[in-house]
Automatic annotation (TrEMBL):
<protein>
    <recommendedName>
        <fullName>Calcineurin-like phosphoesterase domain-containing protein</fullName>
    </recommendedName>
</protein>
<dbReference type="InterPro" id="IPR029052">
    <property type="entry name" value="Metallo-depent_PP-like"/>
</dbReference>
Length: 90
């Protein structure tokens, strides 16, 4: 929803290297976000930490712990940060 000004160039670079780039992490989109591109590269936009809020608008915490494995990345979201399991390969 709020891509960088050069998002198409960055996405093309990541897609062209999808055999070694498994995921792209960024932050500070207030509600956060996740998608996986057709190339298989996962994009995780983490919830804004300082301005995190519950759906009702109350202040909340948001952070995550990432665990890297040979064929997956597990993101254990805390507070209002969602959790994800990013996988690839067979």
């Amino acid at each position: 929803m709020h891509p960088a000004w050069d998002a198409p160039t960055v996405a093309a670079l990541l897609d062209a290297n999808a055999d070694v780039v498994r995921a792209y992490f960024c932050g500070h989109h207030h509600p956060g976000g996740y998608t996986v591109r057709p190339s298989g590269v996962h994009h995780v936009n983490f919830v804004a930490i300082l301005d995190a809020a519950t759906p009702a608008g109350a202040p909340a915490n948001a952070y995550a712990v990432a665990t890297f494995e040979a064929d997956a990345i597990t993101i254990d979201g805390r507070g209002v940060q969602p959790s994800y399991r990013l996988t690839w390969g067979a």
